[in-house]
Amino acid sequence: MRAPWIAAVVYLALLSLGALAALGRPLSASRVPTAVVNSQRDLTRDAALGIGDRMAEAAADVDEIAQQLGETPDVSAQAYFTRLSSAPHVWSSLVLVDATNKVKLAAAGPALPAAVAGQTRPSRVTRDLIIGSPIRIRVLAPVPNTAQFLIGDVSLGFAAAKGTLALLVNGDGTVLATDGTAPGAMQSPRARIVSAAASQTAGAMVDDQNERAPVVASYAPVIEPDTLPSLHLAIAVERAVVPQATTVVSSAEQLHLALLAGVAMAAIALADGLLLYFGIVGPITRLARTCREAARGGFRTAMDIPRHSAECHRIGEIVHTSVLTLTESPQPRKRRHPIQISTPVMLGFAMSGVLLWSAATPFAVDRSAPVIVPLQVNTDEKARTSAVAQATAARLEASFDALAPMAALAATPVNMDMKGSAASSTLASVVGFAQATPSPKRSATAKPTGSAKPTGTAKPTAKASPTPAHAGTPSPSAARPSGTPGPTSKMLPDTVAEHLQSLLHAIVQTHPQFAAVYVVNAHGTRIAGAGAQPKAHFGSAPKTPTIALGADSGTKAVLYGSMPFPDGGAVIAEFDSRYLISSISRSGLGTVCLADFRRRILAATGSFTAFDPLPAGPDAALSAKSGSADSGSMLIEASTVHAGSGHGRLTLSVTSVRSTDTLDLPGTELRHRAQLLGMLGVTGAVLLGGWIWLMLLMPLRLVAAEARRFAAGDHDTPILARRQDEIGAIARSLDLLRQAMTEGRQRLTQADTARPSAWDETWIMPVLREPKPDDTDHMRQRR
């Protein structure tokens, strides 16, 4: 029975020693806090991620143009390139080469070297890195069903931030390019940094031997798509760091906090030990001793009954009353009972001290040791938030630019065999022709035609055009997903419908950021589509290229891009919400929210509800301009960007919210130690309190309930002893008293039927009463 009490005292004593050790241990003495190193490493990782996205967008853009050229072999390539040049695009130069004759068929942008025409046609999309100023990526993409291939040049976008030196390294450890200025003389050989970057891992190293400004070097690999051969590139960044104090607590103050917490817990351990012993364990032990003596027949008028424990005092009074009844002794006068406290209340008092200490210790440390966020961390946090905003806008614009080839191709003359129109026309003019024939109304029970999962080997249906589709291109019925309205013979000629459906399906396949891509006529009616069920609704087709919101309310924010056709209609692509979340997701940046100009959340890396307002606080004025705020325990950064151009520009804001407790600083280290002590205190109080309740209080309260039932006159129900300790001894003693009173009453009833009622029948209980001096002579005279 004493095990829980001993365990509680030992645990609290150990917690007191742990407080002395944890809060008194010296903090990190490094001149460069770990938070600064981690911040630069994350910043370098973001830069490498941006270059990887740039390379992926370049490959996807050039490959899409090549696929569309293969889908429409009769299009005029030069006219198509001319229209592409006037639309937004990622590439800077574009050349179409005939691999058979090694000649250029069409070109756009600055002229590329003549040697590019002599390259071999690749079997899939490949890339080369062109070292120069600026560094460029050269993408080669084959045109399907032809002997042609496309060459595109895209700027890599490699640049160093102010005050840093950036190095571009390949997998062999060769430095391909550098940008920026060296922050200082690196004591460690730069070859270590280059070698670490070439290993395709992310990390950082610190050289703090420079007395004025230590140098931090970080490196990260460029993440490239798995579908393309990797160039094994990496970025290494060097920056000088200005040492800055990150906490205002001194060693003496830290020792004072440790002593205060340790002594307070030691006092609580002593007080709880005394309270648990004299309030619970001691009264139970005294009561068990008294009950054993009463069960052995050692009856006395005065019994040792615990006075201040409510349950033990109640059981002792019942035992005393039962003894007086058996011995036929006069009942004592009722005395005024002293103050009695229930055992659960005593346990609550004992554990409340531990809980109070667990809450007060982290609070005292927070008040005495505030965290100072280094200037470099604030700067990097702002730079990362701004970079995320710019990268999100760039990704939206790059995805939006993917619609430009479709619009340019729709405006380019194509030789088509279709009924009701000229042999040489444009897709846009045919879409405009479809405006005159509105779409027939669909019945409520009509089922969508076609398979929900497109396949590249599906055969055309009976209503499809007799012209076969290109190899690897699905038919309109197979490419149309379930629930997506597709073109009908009454709206578009079969050949045009097949071309539109194939092109839209190719866009969805090559651009997973689009949830749905479809074409609408001037009245806003969908006449062809691919992907998921569209969520945006239009009264008329958009007239200008734009990126906009499809609705101002709902469970999901619908962000779409539209590219109009010259002759009416437009191609519209709705962005996948998962793509928006992945665009703003960054490791170590906290919770990042993408909001519109009204400060309504469109996407977030944490849990969110669409169109909910951003939390009010220090970022209340960030919807109009960029800014930052440090609200005590939160580090908030925000940046506003514009996606699109001209009248179709969409204003977006990216806000990052990060707790300062996540920063690896000496001040937060002391906070974490105090929070750990608080958690240990709460855990110990809950576990020890539960153990004492289950092992002592609950059994004692059950015995007290049975004793009250026995005192109320229920002498037939046995009082079971479920334990072998003091509480079990109390239960057994009560059951012996119950048996004695029951047996005496039964024998008395039997004696009344055989002898006169005036006889004294108490002789039948020789064990349960104390013999009187003249009792023996009296019995002999009666017999």
Structure described in brief:
41% of the residues lie in helices and 17% in strands. The protein has 783 residues and is α+β, with helices and mostly antiparallel strands. A 5-stranded antiparallel beta sheet has the order 2-1-5-4-3. The chain has a 5-stranded antiparallel beta sheet with strand order 7-6-10-9-8, sandwiched between helices. A 5-stranded antiparallel beta sheet has the order 14-13-17-16-15.
Any overview of this molecule?
- The chain contains 16 helices and 22 strands.
- It has 783 residues and is an alpha+beta fold.
- Strands 2-1-5-4-3 form a five-stranded antiparallel sheet. It has a five-stranded antiparallel sheet with strand order 7-6-10-9-8, with helices on both faces.
- The longest helix is centred in the last third of the chain and has 46 residues, at 666-711.
